[in-house]
DNA sequence: TGAAGCTCTGAACCATGGTTCACTTCTTTC
DNA sequence: GAAAGAAGTGAACCATGGTTCAGAGCTTCA
């Protein structure tokens, strides 16, 4: 044996893989899944198309990884806010705000995660993550009901309405560009969400 | 001139075109846009693939026509209910019920219209129709606010939440198969919708 | 430095599925 | 019935874009 991967070499490969995922994420956020060809992604990462296949067995596998990383971050952040400090209604309010704010800050990515046309493998992953978003919202709604802050209700449906509303706001260039309009939009959205869960209006 | 289309021939062609659209709609409802190849659709209609191009210049044009017909029917029905008799809150309640009920009755088609992966031309059409659904809901919410039945709110966002909630319920096999569960689901969904718009709970 | 084995390249390859077209079949008119 | 012309056929064509692979260039180790 005249060659063995040295630790440095291993971490270099690992870094290349991470870089590829990062660049692919940017491309997807920019132009959507359908336009993110292997060549486009490889170009963005500064490698040849063939080299992609050293890190992933197929384009679909790369796409799924990109999706999981990005969606995983959102689930994590949302989970921390919804499961954090404060009473259930406060947490719900902050959760909606954080979810929507992050989405508006990176619309391209949010659109890719929530709604953009994608290959079946990504579609399946998306269903799974939407279920997770819903489960997180549903849990805090249930806590609110248990604490007597919210009226009895089907928490799953309320949760669906919340993700649905946020999704709709993003799909379409509904939110204006300037800061004031964005603030207003977030306030209106949060108000609708609280009403939807049955929280007394402020 | 030894040949001229006779009226009977013209209506036969028209009928063939309608039949093609109908069969294509069924195929799409059954297997989704991505699996609805020209061959599959032509087979379903009992004609050759090439014959499709006598009625439509491209597959995309056929797909758009299929979408418009089906989505147009839904918009029309929803519009009639929301713009019909009764006070705004009653109409909103019935509108949500009708929209969701029709969707649950033909899930495949509803999924195709609201969420299934589709080619860009259909995606653009979908955005347009989602805007129409929202506009219809928003109008009745505005009327409710004007009538003092609903609190002041951003009607567009409430409308987005309504379509979003219904969409979420459909995307996922959330609704159970039996009749009782469906009734309960519709009741819960309507309740969430009314809360979302700020109507006093029953 | 040389041998061995790996990474990287990018042009060729190939699968998929929409589209075309030479040909057949049917309809109309004389 | 025959000519003219449209509708209908389906196999061949072609564009797109994911995947492969033979060779070039590196890295490791003796």
Molecular structure report:
The structure is a homodimer of 202-residue chains. The mean pLDDT of chain A is 93. Chain A has 202 residues and is mostly helical. In chain A, helix 5 runs antiparallel to helix 9 and helix 8 (155-171) runs antiparallel to helix 9. In chain A, 39% of the residues are buried. Chain A has helices at residues 7-31, 38-45, 49-55, 59-82, 88-105, 107-114, 120-146, 155-171, 179-197. Chain A has nine helices and no strands. Chain A has a domain at 64-197: Tetracycline Repressor, domain 2. The longest helix of chain A is centred in the middle third of the chain and has 27 residues, at 120-146. In chain A, 76% of the residues lie in helices and 0% in strands. Chain A binds chain B through residues 34, 117-120, 123, 127, 130-131, 134, 151, 153-154, 156-158, 160-169, 171-172, 174, 185, 188-189, 191-193, 195-198, 201, and chain B through 34, 117-120, 123, 127, 130-131, 134, 151, 153-154, 156-158, 160-169, 171-172, 174, 185, 188-189, 191-193, 195-198, 201. Chain A binds a DNA duplex (30 and 30 nucleotides) through helix 1 and helix 3.
